[in-house]
Amino acid sequence: MSHAQNDDRAAAILWRRASGLLAYDEAISELADADCAAAIAAAISERVRLRADLVQRALDAESDEPISVMCRVAGFQMNSYSALLRMRRRANRGAKSAPAHSLTFFSALSRTSAERQLPRLAVDLDRRDSRAR
Question: Does the chain have fewer CB atoms within 10 Å around its N or its C terminus?
Fold first, then answer.
């Protein structure tokens, strides 16, 4: 799918969400199934109050842990998180760990625990960008 088609698909999904035709989790699942990573990063960043570029780095990371924590803080349900994992695997992200392990980690992670971990993850992701420059 071209970048323009991807943007159009994301806009259509987000319009349906804004119109009340889709629940948040359904919208995230559809965005993930359409490989709309930028729109997902924006949605997560809004919910977790982090810059979208940090969320995008978590989406692109080899480990599933950073995005798992962010998804838990953002209030994802198992279906939307699973769709996000599928999107990451299609992009060869997180492929070194079994999806079952990531799903178990996410399922066992409480929102409170994830909220405590989020500031450390944000600092780590920001440091990675600083070293890359």
Answer: C
- Per-domain residue ranges for the chain? 3-132
Burial 74-99 (b: 16+ CB within 10 A, else e): bebeeebbbbbbebbeeeebbeeeee
**Identity (one letter) of the amino acid at 48?**
V
| Per-residue pLDDT tens digits for 92-104 | 888 777 888 999 9
**Per the confidence metrics, is the pTM higher than 0.85?**
yes
Contact 106, 81 (CB under 8 A): yes
The Cα–Cα gap between 27 and 132 comes to 33
Distance of alpha carbon 93 from alpha carbon 65, whole angstroms: 12
pLDDT digits (tens, 9 = 90+) for 16-51: 999 999 999 999 999 999 999 999 999 999 999 999
